[in-house]
Write a structure and sequence with these properties.
- It is a single chain.
- The chain has 337 residues and is of the alpha+beta class.
- The chain is 31% helix and 22% strand.
- The chain contains three helices and twelve strands.
- The strands form two sheets. A six-stranded antiparallel barrel has the order 1-2-5-4-3-12. It has a six-stranded antiparallel beta barrel with strand order 6-7-8-11-10-9.
- A hairpin with a 5-residue loop joins strand 6 and strand 7.
- The longest helix has 45 residues.
- It is elongated, with a radius of gyration of 49 Å.
- The C terminus is likely disordered.
């Protein structure tokens, strides 16, 4: 038993030596069919294949153990490349979003023929309920001065409070301290909107106490020495009961989302004439009224058919009229002589 075990070990050792020899020769020789490599391949080709199959995973494992940081460095490099690609994609998406927002802002300014200075909101001021403000990255060096209206692609944002060389503080229209002149759409009825301390809520009050405001009425700014006219403000969502039968106050929801501002424009130039209501977006067209369905009709098999009236003789029990038999004239007799 011991002799067989030693013999088996010896055979395995010899085979391993031969396999590693073949691998070494194969690595250093470019012509696998010549010389020693060709002869040994013919003799030990099968053994080489089997031993190589067994030893290749072992070699790779030993290589990874000998160089533990090589695969980790490769993984780190791939992760860094992936992060860089994601960053570039995010930058491209942000650039496209900013371009679309700027295009919408320019479109609104063109409809009102306003001259605007684009800016971005860079900071949020006091929003504790006493004074709602934001800071933008445009200032007096760009032509921004106090009391100028600020808008975005949806409508009124607020007014400029103060300005430094490169920044300005904007008081939002929803600030309780804000009061801006407004006009009802399609009329010359004037009033003012004031902030309610919420992100997108205003209160509109007509100057004339004998007039009324209705739900669905839309508001724009009216032009003055300080403010640009025709800037969309918002829509009346609730009429406030004044107790006297005439409601001249109402809650207004702003067109602009004042709680999530980014790109805005400061109006530094106004047209020679008030743009009226043309800056407002068109009202949605109601769907056409559908015609009532036609009345149900009986299927053709159940409809009475227009047929000829039966003759009396074909009706059971009807009297039968008998016509007299016509008499035939006698035949002429012929004389036979």
């Amino acid at each position: 038993m011991g002799r067989d075990t030693r013999r088996s070990r010896m055979i395995i050792l010899v085979l391993l030596v031969v396999a590693f020899t073949l691998i070494t020769v194969d690595y250093h020789s470019s012509d696998s069919s010549s010389g020693l490599r060709g002869a040994l391949r013919d003799v030990f080709g099968g053994v080489e294949t089997a031993v190589t199959t067994v030893t290749r995973p072992i070699g790779r494992t030993l290589s990874s153990l000998a160089h533990p940081n090589r695969y980790q460095k490769r993984a780190d490099a791939l992760a860094a490349e992936n992060a860089e690609l994601k960053r570039r994609l995010a930058e491209d998406d942000e650039a496209r979003r900013q371009a679309a927002a700027l295009s919408s802002l320019r479109l609104l300014a063109d409809r009102g023929q306003y001259t605007i200075i684009p800016a971005r909101v860079v900071a949020i001021g006091d929003i504790t309920g006493t004074d709602w403000t934001v800071t933008i990255n445009a200032g007096s060096a760009d032509g921004v001065t106090p009391d100028k209206l600020v808008l975005n692609s949806d409508g009124l944002v607020g007014t400029v409070l103060t300005a430094t060389a490169h920044t300005a503080v904007v008081q939002l229209a929803s600030s309780p301290a804000s009061h801006i002149g407004a006009r009802l759409e399609n009329t010359r009825l004037l009033g003012a909107v004031a902030g309610r301390g919420g992100p997108d809520a205003l209160t509109f009050t007509l100057y004339d106490a004998t007039l009324q405001v209705k739900t669905g009425d839309r508001l724009v700014t009216f032009g003055s020495a300080d403010y640009a006219g025709g800037v969309p403000i918002g829509v009346v969502t609730k009429v406030l009961d004044s107790g006297g039968g005439l409601s001249r106050s109402a809650e207004v929801t702003t067109f602009a989302a004042l709680g999530s501002l980014d790109l805005v424009g400061v109006v530094v130039g106004t047209p020679a004439t008030d743009p009226g209501d043309r800056v407002l977006a068109p009202r949605p067209v109601p769907p056409p009224a559908t015609a009532p369905p036609p009345p149900a009709t009986a299927p053709p098999s159940q409809q009475p058919s227009a047929t000829a009236s039966p003759s009396p003789s074909s009706v059971p029990g009807a009297p039968v009229r008998i016509s007299p038999t016509p008499t035939l004239a006698p035949a002429a007799r012929t004389s036979t002589g």
